[in-house]
Specification:
This protein is α/β, with parallel strands linked by helices. It is built from 6 helices and 5 strands; from the N terminus they run βααβαβααβαβ. It has a single domain, classed as Phosphoglycerate mutase-like (Rossmann fold, 3-Layer(aba) Sandwich). α5 packs across α6.
C-alpha cells in the first residue's frame, strides 16, 4: 500500500512562529499551497483520505479531494497536544529541541508525552495495515509527519525529530 502524507497549508501561527491550537484555519497562502498541491496529485487515484479533525487539516483535505473520495476523520492524526504552550512563541532553542527528542526525560508540563504521541500515531498505521487499499492520502500535521518518519525509518540514535517534520503542503510517500 502506498501512503501519501501531507502537512496542512500555512496557518497564522506558522507565520507568527507560535504553538498552534485545533481551531486555526488556513491563511490565503495556505489555501494557495493546497490548490497548487491539488494540481500535482490530481491524477493519483487515492482509495480514501484520512484526515486530522483539526480545521486546517480538514480544509486542506477538502481542497486536495478533487476526485471526491471518501474522507475519514481520525483523532489519532491530531497534532501533538502542546498543552499550556498553545499560543506561545515557538523558539528554535534547546527547549524545543528537547521537546522533539524521543529520549527526553524532561517534564514538558501538560504537553503530550512524545512517546505516547508516537504510540497514538503508530496505532493508526498498524490499523491501516489491515485495510485493503492501494493508495491512501493522509492530511495531518508536522508532528504527525515526524512520527511517520519514526515508524518507517526508526528512531534516530540521538532521538531527535526536531528537523524531520514536513513543511506546509509538503507531501511524502511511504510503502506500508
Amino acid at each position: 500500500m502506498k501512503v501519501y502524507i501531507v502537512r496542512h497549508g500555512q496557518i497564522l501561527s506558522n507565520v507568527l512562529k507560535k504553538h498552534t491550537n485545533p481551531f486555526e484555519d488556513l491563511t490565503e497562502l495556505g489555501i494557495k499551497q493546497a490548490k497548487e498541491l491539488s494540481k500535482i496529485i490530481k491524477n493519483i487515484n487515492f482509495d480514501i483520505i484520512y484526515v486530522s479533525p483539526y480545521l486546517r487539516a480538514i480544509h486542506t483535505a477538502e481542497i486536495l479531494n478533487t476526485n471526491n473520495k471518501k474522507v475519514i476523520i481520525d483523532e489519532r492524526l491530531c497534532e501533538r497536544n502542546c498543552g499550556k504552550l498553545s499560543g506561545q512563541p515557538v523558539e528554535d532553542n534547546i527547549y524545543r529541541m528537547d521537546y522533539w527528542n524521543y529520549f527526553s526525560i524532561k517534564d514538558h508540563g501538560n504537553a503530550e508525552n512524545i512517546k505516547n504521541f508516537f504510540e497514538r500515531v503508530f496505532s493508526f498505521l498498524e490499523e491501516l495495515k489491515t485495510k485493503n487499499y492501494d493508495k491512501v492520502l493522509i492530511v495531518t500535521h508536522s508532528g504527525v509527519s515526524k512520527a511517520f518518519y519514526g515508524y518507517f525509518n526508526g528512531i534516530p540514535e540521538d532521538g531527535s525529530f526536531f528537523n524531520l517534520g514536513l513543511k506546509n503542503c509538503e507531501i511524502k510517500q511511504y510503502i506500508l
